[in-house]
Amino acid sequence: MLLLSACSDQSGAEAVAAAEPQPARVSVMTVQPQAVTVYDELPGRVSAFRTAEIRAQVSGIIQKKLFEEGAFVDADTPLFQVDPAPFAADADAAAAGLARAEAELVNAKVKFERAELLSAQKITSDEAFNNATAALSQAKATVAEAKANLARRKLELSNATIRSPISGTIGQSFMTEGGLASSSATTPLAVVQQIEQVYVDVRQSSMSLESLRETASGAGMGDPEELPVRIKTITGKPYGHAGRVLFSDITIDSATGSLGIRIVVPNPEEKLLPGMFIRAMVPREVYSAALLVPQEAVTRDPAGRPELIIVGADKTGVRRTLDLGPLVDGKYLVRSGLAAGETIVVLGQERVQNGQPLETSPSQVSPETQS
Fold this sequence. Notes:
CATH class of the largest domain: Mainly Beta
Order of helices and strands: HEEEEEHHEEEEHEEEEEEEEEEE
Helix content: 25-40%
Number of domains: 4
Radius of gyration: 42 Å
Oligomer: single chain
Largest sheet: 6 strands, mixed
CATH superfamily of the largest domain: Efflux pump adaptor protein, beta barrel domain
CATH architecture of the largest domain: Beta Barrel
Strand content: 35-45%
Distance between the termini: 74 Å
């Protein structure tokens, strides 16, 4: 009887132990709020910060090319020398014309002073005095015209030396020594470009701009367009300098619903070249206290809705449906359904039933985010 009773008690204990759910081993993490910026990755094209087409302002034969292609030139650096001899001769002729006009002015002044004196003594007629006055005025006008003509000829002589209007890198020369430079030519002699900083032109959805303004206002930030813009090269590598939005168009493209954005980007190493295609990470949403969960922590219910397993204070797991936003560096932004400080299951969800005890260990998922 004693043996049968002992066997019966042991079988009952084993049955109770078997009926109790065993703890499921899972990895967990506690969700904490953090500052997050969501970006739109947009294709863009680089253009020079300043561009100057070098053109001749006078026509003539080019005697010298004074630069090396691809070199950096300072503002006012001589680039081409047009044969100055014709312009120097014109300047000399204009100087002689000015001297002749000034001599005629001296003669006109003498005649005017004599006529004025005689008129005061009532010796000469009023008509003679008026003629002397008119001759003086005409001589003064002739001198002024001669001075202007001389200044014009000197300017043409100066323009025979073609200079760079800006500092920058000069490209290919489209004219060599012996070529005929023309002030009416449509093709420039060369092009100088400033690329210490460059423009990047992209197009962003107008809805993204509205969303950025709304979230920035909710985060208590200032002008959202002052947020830095991250740049990626065409190969996807991050560029070492952030840009900033210079301006946005005020007109929406009716066909695409997008607007143009110009970004200015520092380019001290001159890695970004005009005409290059790159990608710009333009802010779309900004949050001062966002909740992010790892992508692998999110599962789907039979209806396809996203859900998380929340670890309660009693160390049991409960599934909860939530509203997800965009992915940020492999983590989902949670719009609703989760509170700061709650603990979620990251790995081992398939072993968890509602109300089942959990044996937890910290997850190794990095908390770093794109911010």
